[in-house]
Amino acid sequence: MLAAFRRDVRAALDRDPAARSALTIIICYPGVHAIWGHRVSNWLWHHHAKLLARGSAELVRALTGVEIHPAATLGPGVFIDHATGVVIGETAEVGTDVTIYHGVTLGSTSQGKGKRHPTVGDRVIIGAGAKILGPITVGEDSRIGANAVVVKPVPPGSVVVGVPGQVIAPSRPRAATALPGAGDAVLPDLVGTSLQSLLTRVARLEALADGRAASPAIRPPDAGVWHGEDFAI
User: Fold this and answer.
1) Could you tell me if 55 and 166 lie in one domain?
2) Strand bridging mode 87-88 / 67-68
3) What is the SS3 assignment for 152?
4) Residues 45, 138: one domain?
5) pLDDT, tens digit, for every residue of 140-184?
6) Closest CA to 31 of 18, 47, 45
7) Taking the CB of the first residue and of the last residue of the chain, which one, N or C, has fewer CB atoms within 10 A?
8) Based on the structure, what is the number of domains in the chain?
9) Whole domain around residue 42: which residue ranges?
10) Same domain, 89 and 202
């Protein structure tokens, strides 16, 4: 367990550019504290002390804002950045070197007693506010965009965005040296892009129609700004 604790600190140092030292992480990082607390409660759970394990997990939740069921499986090198609001369910399995941001839920969609939470592969990055629900598998080296809601299996090496989550094909491979959150600002807006394309085509068709003018109510965005008569703001 001591070796696992050391690797958890190393993971935070490697993946958080704000980390100044190992001592800072040991004292000031609630995400690391939550993982340490889970490793203890998980050991208790598997050594016939389930009530004590649940009590330990509840104490960790109160102190860190992270709720991890003691039966969940977390691999080595998992890093929870910013920590607050993370929920990981009982049958969830998280692989090696996974990065999880705040507000993430690895949840269930059923009330059954069997496997009902996700399995997350190695080196997956889960963006802030993302929800991965049900007994699905997220393939290794995948990236889940912020606020995505994933309810279907994700192939290895995928990028998932939107609600419900849609798998998109990246135009180029991710650099091995890139930090976990790098590039999140350029993740595509699938709905917005599709709507823009549709409005552009409609506007062109209306302009070609005899005696009809394009509707002024909503027009495709110009330099990222949407124009309309009233968006009920």
Assistant:
1) yes
2) parallel
3) coil
4) yes
5) 999 999 899 999 999 998 889 888 888 886 655 655 555 555 555
6) 18
7) C
8) 2
9) 2-172
10) no
